[in-house]
Write a structure and sequence with these properties.
single chain, about 120 residues, alpha+beta, Cytidine Deaminase, domain 2, six-stranded mixed β-sheet, 2 helices
């Protein structure tokens, strides 16, 4: 993932704080590797204090969506049970307050942390 892309996601999280923000991640997969290349705000996404959601039936047909990202205003950098129960795609990226590069992490559907490679 490019540094500018991750910084843009963190910037959106900062702007919406203390409300959560949710994003769809676009990219490619090759084996177990997921490359995130872009993101978009889901249609009719709503974020509030302690939640961010979007109606799944409103998602565009887009086979490049590889997962989601959302913020954790609490600063907790691990997925909640609710996060895992609503997992969508191959990866989930969490953006935790104070929304710096060190407060972003990727997870799989089992809640296991995945390495993130940030390129300049």
């Amino acid at each position: 993932m490019g540094r500018m892309l991750l910084e843009a996601m963190l910037g959106l999280a900062r702007e919406q704080h203390p409300h959560e923000v949710v994003l769809l991640l676009r990219g490619r997969t090759k084996g177990d590797t997921v490359r995130v290349e872009d993101f978009l705000v889901p249609p009719l996404a709503v974020g509030g204090s302690g939640f961010a959601e979007f109606p799944l039936h409103m998602l565009p047909i887009d086979f490049s969506i590889v997962g989601t990202a959302h913020s954790h205003p609490s600063g907790v950098l691990r997925p909640s049970v609710g996060d895992l129960n609503h997992f969508y795609g191959r990866i989930m990226i969490l953006l935790a307050h104070p929304y710096t590069l060190t407060k972003a992490a990727a997870f799989n559907a089992r809640g296991e942390r995945l390495p993130i490679e940030v390129r300049d």
